[in-house]
Amino acid sequence: MQASKGVLRFLSADGLEILVGRTAADNDALTFELAGQDDFWLHAAGVPGSHVVLRNPGRLPRPPRQSLRQAAALAARHSKARDGGQVAVHWTLRRYVHKRRGAPAGEVTLDRFQVVRASPREAPGLTADPG
């Protein structure tokens, strides 16, 4: 699928597509319309920020280490924690991300997740891909 307007597109070192929402409405569209159930989903823990989707065309049980690191760095960079040091980033499969009825745009709940720490200044080798 093509990234939509309002979604930034990057390629990881492993060649996987990373999509980043720009606004709360973009986050909803990215998470619930563009992302597949087996894609990896990331968000900086406890702060407002972008939803990040790491595509998972091979339906891997875990993301490749370098791709996870890069996607987490993007989640940290595109959050209110971007001026801090290490940021806790939640990651899970998209299938475990849900929207509560009546929740505002961009607000979700997670059935299960893992945590990775990332620096907003670290996104090795990542540049926006015009797509």
Question: How are the SSEs ordered, and which strands pair?
Answer:
Blueprint lengths: L6 E5 L5 E5 L2 H11 L5 E5 L7 E3 L10 H13 L9 E7 L3 E2 L10 E2 L3 E5 L13
Antiparallel strand pairs: 1-2, 2-4, 3-4, 3-5, 5-8, 6-7
Question: Could you please describe the fold and organization of this structure?
Answer:
The protein has one domain. The model has no long low-confidence stretch (mean pLDDT 90). It has helices at residues 24-34, 65-77; strands spanning 7-11, 17-21, 40-44, 52-54, 87-93, 97-98, 109-110, 114-118. The longest helix is centred in the middle third of the chain and has 13 residues, at 65-77. Helix content is 18%, strand content 26%. It contains two helices and eight strands. The radius of gyration is 13 Å and the shape is globular. The N and C termini lie close together (11 Å). Strands 1-2-4-3-5-8 form a six-stranded antiparallel beta sheet. A two-stranded antiparallel sheet has the order 6-7. Strand 1 (7-11) and strand 2 form a beta hairpin. It is an alpha+beta fold.
Summarize the model shown:
With 131 residues, this protein is α+β, with helices and mostly antiparallel strands. Helices cover 18% and strands 26% of the residues. Strands 1-2-4-3-5-8 form a 6-stranded antiparallel sheet.
Contiguous runs where pLDDT drops below 50 for at least 5 residues: none
Strand ordering within the main sheet: 1-2-4-3-5-8
Q: What is the N-to-C order of secondary-structure elements (H for helix, E for strand)? A: EEHEEHEEEE
How many beta-strand elements? Answer: 8
Number of helices: 2
Mean pLDDT figure: 90
Instruction: Give the % helix.
Output: 10-25%
How many domains? The number is: 1
Q: State the assembly state of the protein chains.
A: single chain
**Main sheet?**
6 strands, antiparallel
Estimated share of beta-strand residues: 25-35%
The SS-based structural class is alpha+beta
The radius of gyration is 13 Å
Q: Rough shape?
A: globular
End-to-end Cα distance: 11 Å
